[in-house]
Amino acid sequence: MLREPLPIxxxxxxxxxxNVEFNNVVVSAxxxxxxxxxxxxxxxxxxxxxxxRVPRELVLSVQTIWEFAKSDHQLHSIxxxxxxxxxxxxxAILIFLLVQITSSSSDVTVKIGNxxxxxxxxxxxxxxxxxxxxxxxxxxxxxxxTSLAAALEFKMGAIQREFDNLRSSTADLDCCKVWWDRDIxxxxxxxxxxxxxxxxxxxxxxxxxxxxxVPCIDMANHGSGEEINALYETDANGSAVLILANDKxxxxxxxxxxxxxxxxxxxxxxxxxxxxxxxMKDARTLFLELGIPDDDPLKFAKMEAFDVPPGFxxxxxxxxxAWHGPCIWLQCVNEEDGLGFHVLQQYxxxxxxxxxxxxxxxxxxxxxxxxxxxxxxxxxxxxxAFVVMTQRIRDQLSKNEVAQTxxxxxxxxxxxxxxxxxxLVQRLGSLEARLLHQALRQFDKTILELxxxxxxxxxxxxxxxxxxILPKNNSVSVTDDPSLPRPERSLPSSQS
Length: 496
Known about the structure:
The chain is α+β, with helices and mostly antiparallel strands.
């Protein structure tokens, strides 16, 4: 669909018509790479309690969109047709944006739903994006060796599935002929990619509301550290407001900057916003894929019983590496350790898969994790977890180093993409390598500490058998356990 942009200079007129208040600030374009932003326009900006105030009825959230639908039959029919998807903030907002873009596009003759202030506001929003979902094939190939490569591949598949579901769910609705009809239909997956990008790059966690899009305030750019001089809030009437951050007194013509999330990692920032925080010293956090091995005899039972992401996340928290990944625990325990599965079927009812730990029925991955951490063999299970994660980190580092070398040697005539994208990917790879090295050093240290615990020493001793250490009624030897290296009671190799 053809969305013809409106000049940002007209935003003040739109704001006046829709009761958006600006106090000593203005939205305008700049000559910097940040583009459009919010700027102090007067010397008394520090005296304004609210720099920008947006009425609640203009805020897009899952609640307000369904409220709009009560008086908009066509919007309601589309939202209802998509079931649970539009009961989420992202789903409801994506569909609402599609409806508004349809009604504001110059190449669409039939409109959908009632006119809304957002019907015009979407024309102030960008039509060109630097997000990876819009990169060329040549640019995406550069991501090999970074955690963004797998995330982007998954995202593109998810977008296609969502678009296919949108088509199948709404194709029979009369109001959606403008999307799907062979003669007049205009909706393409590129339009869907655009609303997904608008949501990812502009959604904010609004206090008291949740994830939402807020017109005008969403023009504020991201700042780092001391640059941040504004923040968004919700006032007593439910309106969204932009206010000054504590002790900040921006001067006239100074840009007002908010934080898009200081906890966000390099991969997430590049994925959602198309850039990375300039003050990042490492990747902050990254997710490494790691599924249950195919040779695990309980693989399918584990996958059926526990719905957990296939991998683990490492993050820098208070100068220490923290990790989170329930899937890792599933790799580190099996039947010989006390994990059990059985199928229960009530008379005439469906079959149900039940999970037990040392004969006691449990529910959920968090309960299993607690059982593992409190078990008399917990040091052994922790050792397995750190060995598994360390091996995966080494593998990722190897891929990263190869990819960084290829990028450094890439000649201009061998690359058809944009130079700035190459620079972004090189920086991402460098930041992730730094975090991976930090994690590797800490995890290697943890492995050595665990190898020196009494529980592990006894478990690795080929001549030692102890009933309190080994699981009851279990004669499995250590050599049968693929998770722990044990030849000549050696430590896990740091080069494995």
